[in-house]
Design brief:
The protein has 478 residues and is an alpha/beta fold. The protein is built from 16 helices and 21 strands. The strands form 3 sheets. The protein has a 17-stranded mixed beta sheet that branches. A two-stranded parallel sheet has the order 9-16. Helix 8 links the parallel strand 4 and strand 5. The radius of gyration is 23 Å and the shape is globular.
């Protein structure tokens, strides 16, 4: 034992030194003072716990990803310039009170909002995958498909069959899924597609040197582009539970949208960037003019956001839209763990008289963010925000409605992860007709929801409040 004591002492000193070095790194790179303090404390005083946690969850900036227009990949820069030139004939500026969020997005991404788009709301899994499969079945040139989760179940196998049939017709298909989100997907699923000539790649976020343990970043985007003509995006992944066939959750409430028109080109750029990261190539792409005149010419701009950005596009757009709202702000999200600026912007909107309503699920699929949401109740109540809990099954949609003409639908949750750590995608739409459809959807969801008691946290037991506070301490990593 006496021989081992010096070894233990040396290991302890080495561990403490590594902890201090990583604590310095955490202080330098943390996005918030709270995060810096938390990481520094656990790394210095509990290095045997803090070091492995930091190696897995500690990074807040994503390295190795190249954005178009940044000079890193010539083909991506050329794609951005071509797309901007193509969209110039359809460029439009948002009108009225929401000119500011559109201008911020344009300045951050270089992509303009466009007119001559037709946007169709797809409510729940049956409507969504019926529309996606119809487009896939009639594809003649290309199918680009991206999901956070793909399961090898009934829906996943149906999707595979339709892709194989399309490839058999000569359609060039590419499929991208997130390695963490699709961790249960067996190798047989992608291998079967690859044998038929379909390009399939997993989005892996820990391949950079020194980041082999890093699993904190996720590509949470859901995107389907068919023939460079139509795009689908929203909250649904590929799995039977998204079709309402989950024993655990029962009915699954979710929302997707379909867009036809020039805005499709902007969403293509997001896929080109992701595909370049995983495959080190920029695929061939087409830029099509609108084939038909839409019944309602909706103005649309894409939000493709992620931890590679110096300035978060989704943070800028959401904050600006919330500040610009004057009448109504209705939000649906499965998780409500907003950053301080976002949270206070929502509360301030209610204080100045805006009708602020938030729909959250009654049932949790992830316990920590569900518990964390209760810690916001006191100030929400004091500000006059109204919260509903969706009752039947699980609500997973991500929808945002401001006043009577602005709507956002996509993959972005109202939590730290979506705004800081995930690769996300959404469409911002200014159109009164589409906004009225989103309003009708919200009203139907309110009818299936129960007004929440916003005294639930203050009046809860000591143990319940401690649970909620402990969960909230980990909110940046949930």
């Amino acid at each position: 034992m006496s021989y081992l004591s010096p070894i233990y002492a040396l290991l302890t000193i080495c561990l403490e030194m590594v902890g201090i070095l990583l604590a310095m790194r955490a202080i330098l790179m943390a996005r918030t003072p709270q995060s810096a303090i938390a990481w520094a404390g656990v790394l210095v005083f509990l290095p045997f716990i803090g070091i492995p946690l930091f190696l897995i969850f500690g990074e807040s900036r994503f390295a190795g990803y190249t954005q178009a227009g940044k000079g890193g990949v010539k083909a991506l820069d050329e794609a951005l310039h071509r797309i901007v030139r193509h969209l110039d004939g359809y460029k439009v500026f948002f009108q009225g009170g929401f000119a500011e969020p559109e201008r911020m997005a344009r300045n951050l991404t270089s992509l303009p909002a466009t007119s001559h788009n037709e946007v169709r709301l797809l409510v729940d899994g049956n409507a969504t995958f019926e529309a996606i499969f119809e487009a896939v079945d009639t594809a003649t040139e290309s199918i680009w498909m991206q999901f956070f989760i793909i399961h090898d179940d009934i829906l996943g196998r149906t999707l595979a069959e339709k892709l194989l049939a399309a490839a058999g017709r000569g359609v060039r298909c590419r499929v991208l899924y997130d390695q963490v989100g699709s961790k249960t997907l067996p190798a047989s699923w992608p291998n079967r597609l690859r044998k038929a000539g379909i390009a399939v790649e997993a989005f892996v976020t820990n391949r950079q040197f020194g980041r082999s343990f890093q699993i904190n970043f996720r590509n949470h985007r859901k995107l389907v582009i068919v023939d460079a003509r139509v795009v689908f995006l929203g909250g649904l992944n590929v799995g039977d539970e998204y079709m309402g066939q989950s024993r655990q959750f029962g009915p699954w409430r979710d929302t997707h949208i379909r867009i036809d028109g020039p805005a499709v080109a902007g969403f293509q750029l997001s896929f080109l960037e992701d595909w370049n990261y995983v495959a080190r190539e920029v695929p061939e792409y087409r830029l099509r003019p609108p084939e038909v005149t839409p019944r309602h010419s909706a103005s649309v701009f894409p939000i493709a956001t992620g931890p590679y950005e110096s300035w978060s596009t989704c943070t800028a757009v959401y904050l600006s839209a919330i500040h610009c709202a004057t009448e109504r702000l209705w939000i649906a999200s499965p998780y409500f763990v907003p950053s301080s600026p976002l949270f206070y912007a929502i509360c301030h909107a209610a204080i100045r008289g805006v009708d602020v309503r938030i729909i959250l699920p009654q049932k949790p699929d992830h316990l920590l963010p569900w518990l964390s949401s209760f810690t916001y109740y006191t100030k929400l109540r004091e500000a006059g925000v109204k919260v509903w809990r969706y009752q039947p099954g699980f609500m997973h949609q991500k929808a945002f409605l401001a006043d009577n003409d602005l709507a956002i639908v996509g993959s972005i949750n109202l939590d730290y992860r979506s705004f800081m750590l995930n690769f996300e995608l959404a469409a911002v739409v200014q159109d009164k007709n589409f906004a009225s459809e989103v309003e009708a959807m919200f009203l139907a969801d309110f009818d299936r929801s129960r007004p929440e008691n916003l005294r639930a946290f203050d009046d809860g037991s000591l143990f319940f409040r401690l649970q909620c506070r402990a969960a909230a301490l980990m909110s940046p990593e949930q």
